[in-house]
Amino acid sequence: ETGVTQTPRHLVMGMTNKKSLKCEQHLGHNAMYWYKQSAKKPLELMFVYSLEERVENNSVPSRFSPECPNSSHLFLHLHTLQPEDSALYLCASSQDRGGGAGYGYTFGSGTRLTVV
Amino acid sequence: LAKTTQPISMDSYEGQEVNITCSHNNIATNDYITWYQQFPSQGPRFIIQGYKTKVTNEVASLFIPADRKSSTLSLPRVSLSDTAVYYCLVGGDLTGGGNKLTFGTGTQLKVEL
Question: A43: pLDDT confidence band, cut at 50, 70 and 90?
């Protein structure tokens, strides 16, 4: 148990489907993140939420829509995806202390998404 | 963003000490150096974090020189289960003026018998 739970672990969806990925953290952290990891590529930061407000959106296509209803939950809503969106989607959380204090991320196990 | 440079891959044998060095020339004053380990199809796992000098925990040591422009992760007596990708990240808090944590390509460590 890493403290960050992602569901589902695996998802296969058609290009016209709508689905959502869910992330829940049990660590009392105040920041949450979505990362995408494609085969043989580095992790790409998609979205950052700090204190439930989106603070970063790294030019992610609008077919990915994040939602952070509270500091413990993060969703990634998916619609009309493309086959190239197939990847491992990872959620992470951290405690943002401000003032430059050191911190680390706790990652979930990820959702393996396949778009057909 | 603080760019990091690490070797693409390293090979070792069980029982040996492995040192992976990371360069981060544009590290900011508020940045910490953090190392993660990732197995296939899993999320990265925190290994160790430091700001300067040396940090040691139950799994690794982290050496940081005075100029902080590089760091070395040291894994003592590796085993087959240490085969993984190791990432060096440099960054600070979202509100602390440090760089945001950005993953590079990492170092693929392969441990053999």
Answer: confident
